[in-house]
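re: ur question from earlier - yeah i can do the single chain one, its not a big deal. heres the input i used so u can compare w yours
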Amino acid sequence: MARPQDVTLEDHRAYGADVQLQVALDNMPGALVYTDEDLNIVICNDRFKEMYRVPEELLQAGRPYSDFLRYLAEHGYYGEGDVDALVARRVDSLRNPSGRSFEDHAPDGRWYRIVRRRAAGGGTVTVMTDITDQKQAEQDLAKKEAQLRVALGNMPGALVYTDKDLNVVFCNDRFKEMYDAPPDLLQPGRPYPDFLRYLAVNGYYGTGDVDVLVAERVESLRNPSGRSFEDHTPDGRWLRIRRRRAAAGGAVTVMTDITEQKRAERELVEAKQRTEEANKLVIEKNRVLEGLYAEIQDKNRQVEEQAAQLAEWNTTLESRVAEQVSQIGRYSRLTRFLSPKISDLIMSGETDDPLKTRRAEITVVYVDLRGFTGFTETAEPEEVMSVLRQYHAELGRLVVEYDGTIEHIAGDGMMVLFNAPMPVENHELQAIRMALAMRESLTALSLSWRKRGHELGFGAGIAGGYVTIGTIGFEQRLDYGAIGPACNMAARLCGEAKDKQILIAPRVLSKVEAHIEVEPAGDLVLKGFQRPVPAHNILGISRAGLEQSTSTSTNSASVTSTVEQSP
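and the output i got, formated as tokens:
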């Protein structure tokens, strides 16, 4: 944007505001375009131009946005169909934005989530987000679930998995075939006792009080013994049933049809009876008895082979199901605390379980917003949530980028751990790089908040030392946490930091002093600490720190090259 030569003070200020707005828009992670009430382009950021490879003149200010939509329709962005109709639907969503998101599948295979909202000053703001990775992850998960269902659906035995509340989680097709019951009784989430009661009422458990019969089966479901028992169905079939407790909670019940085995056993008994009767009748019928004996031996062998095969199937099935359920439970716990990269490393078996309690030396970063309390007292709740979503999204992105672990989030406050649960090389310097990146990002973000009338700043505290780390809570709710003076000191330093200050504790400073530039912040009296703490404000990364960043970390290069002094 060229700066005019002869301008008034008001023009100069307007020009500066336009530049700041363009910088903020070009540095936001998503694509954005703003169109006026006549559907002409007012402004779009660089991310928008990168996301859609179209002729530059289609995105010039003042150009009808419908020309851009037509180009996309003609080049397959909206699928097959009449181009005019496809464009008309998009123009209508631009004139009457609903605020609800929809998705586009680009010709090159990428997926975009699009949201349009009416701007307060008129016109429409359209935001596009690339969700290709999310779509791929959803497809991979669906594929794995389909593979598991195919495996369970093709196993010879029947299987049902119930949770700790006795509700149906899953049952395979063999189970539904084995029991002629209404399909709605076996839907996921349906109480399994309803199915047991249906069987009791329809004679599956013999004669007797229905409530008593159901109670006996419910008790075996709550406290599975692992021992098998048998049921004789009204249609004459015999079923062997075994229940085991799942590692992730609930119970896995496996049913095997042993009708043929029972029939063989009955025939064996009958053959023995015929042999005894033959022996009593005539000795002369020895030849007949020998034939019967051979028949008995053959049936014995068949029974033993069937029993061995059934035992092998049950053992393999129970082992596979228990392993799958345990792995799903472990992965669910891990992804609550760790980034996908670390979770995948642990699930691959290449490292020990990081959730167990242990003692470790870590670096703690605590950040929050200056002026947030006053902001929440005057702003509408929806506006507060909008600011927090932007704030958390930007901080969360940087935490993942610099291999940190979020210990907790409370409103505008966030505590981030480095070197736990996984080792991080030069974790003190890595934590500082992240804090500097946050300060830079939040400085740009605060400009957009200021345009909305919100005066919000950024402050951080960094401390380090030995702490105890591990899971905190109870079985239904576990969090990953750290306990130790370093956590308290980081929070207290953050509370003392002014806008754009990053206060660092002496212990951490002594380890990275040669790599950063600081200024004294005075001896601070911190709550919970008996002696004043000599704190320093981090100005930026020194030349030595920049050289180390180049050789040991590619993630921090963009931050250290631009953040050399605090604003």
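Residues 554-567 have pLDDT under 50 and may be disordered. not sure if urs matches, ping me
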